């Protein structure tokens, strides 16, 4: 009887461990940064823990059908929608020549007008303060006018994303806004580039 009880307890423990593993795998993701586009916030070799449930969505069948007919995606988020300043992992749009997931920061949300010049980033006509960038990143002494090429309208169901290292980032400035359904998770926290964390999953910081 004692052995049977011990076996049962071990079996229950194994079930709990497997269940927690499955839940964790579904909710979290590991990724390693390759490239410099998010420096100095994220550097080459950094390991990221990504919350895959942060932007979980649900659909309302009738509303979804109506939205698809007008080429607009309903944003029915279970917890919260992606917000300005979030660092996100996403699959690149089909016309972007990258085979790996990308990591960028959300700068514009649906309905925003994003304008960029030497003075910085303006959202809906207001200067957008980016405390995560070096203070000297934008040359505030030079004048620069807005042109059609550096003013972007963020449509419904899309986001405007950029790398923090603007000179070395391939982002929404070159390939347009990002569809919400391409976003796969939110960066939760980072780990230093220790070799012990070197798992296969990589993302491109390019």
Sheet-strand content, in percent, reads 25-35%
Main beta-sheet annotation: 6 strands, mixed, barrel
Span between N and C termini?
61 Å
Q: Going across the major beta sheet, what is the strand order?
A: 1-2-11-3-4-12
Average the pLDDT over all residues and give the rounded result: 76
Query: What's the overall geometry?
Result: globular
Please outline the helices and strands.
Layout: H1 2-27, E1 28-34, E2 47-51, H2 61-69, E3 87-90, E4 101-108, E5 113-117, E6 120-123, E7 126-127, E8 151-153, E9 158-162, H3 172-175, E10 178-179, E11 183-191, E12 202-204
Parallel strand pairs: 1-12, 4-12
Antiparallel strand pairs: 1-2, 2-11, 3-4, 3-11, 4-9, 5-6, 5-8, 6-7, 9-10
Describe this entry's structure for a reader.
This protein has 206 residues and is of the alpha+beta class. It has 3 helices and 12 strands, in the order H-E-E-H-E-E-E-E-E-E-E-H-E-E-E. The strands form 2 sheets. The protein has a 6-stranded mixed barrel with strand order 1-2-11-3-4-12. The longest helix has 26 residues, at 2-27. It starts with a helix and ends with a strand. Mean pLDDT is 76; it is low at 15-24, 62-71 and 139-144.
Please give a handful of descriptors for the protein shown:
alpha+beta; 6-stranded mixed β-barrel; 4-stranded antiparallel β-sheet; globular
Summarize the structure.
This protein has helices spanning about 1-25, 60-70, 170-175; strands at about 30-35, 45-50, 85-90, 100-110, 115, 120-125, 125, 150-155, 160, 180, 185-190, 200-205.
